[in-house]
Design goal:
The chain is an alpha+beta fold. The protein has one domain. About 15% of the residues lie in helices and about 40% in strands. It is globular.
Length: about 100
């Protein structure tokens, strides 16, 4: 469960609190929404066994042929070798 994870490490970047996002490989400012992302991603990787390379953060949904202008908070991709494209079996959005 998510409650079993260690506290998130908070860095200071230009005086602002930030997390290091291992998926995006960059520092991101601490916000309530980002805190949820930083809790869910380790759960997906460590508890559910989702390979990190299959996870996308803040991905535009039209990349997957969906008629949305919005972004998904978290996308879990799978590669469809027959069609040579990535398809998201799951994505998480706030709305």
């Amino acid at each position: 469960m998510l409650k079993n994870f260690l506290p998130l490490h908070i860095y200071r970047i230009e005086g602002q609190p930030a997390y290091f996002d291992p998926v995006r490989k960059k520092y991101v400012l601490v916000t309530p929404r980002e805190t949820v992302r930083q809790r869910v991603v380790p759960y997906l990787i460590q508890e559910l066994g989702v390979p990190q390379k299959m996870i996308r953060i803040g991905e535009k949904l039209f990349y997957y042929g969906l008629n949305f202008r919005h972004r998904a908070d978290i996308v879990i991709e799978r590669f469809d070798a027959a069609e040579n494209i990535s398809r998201p079996p799951a994505f998480v959005r706030k709305d």
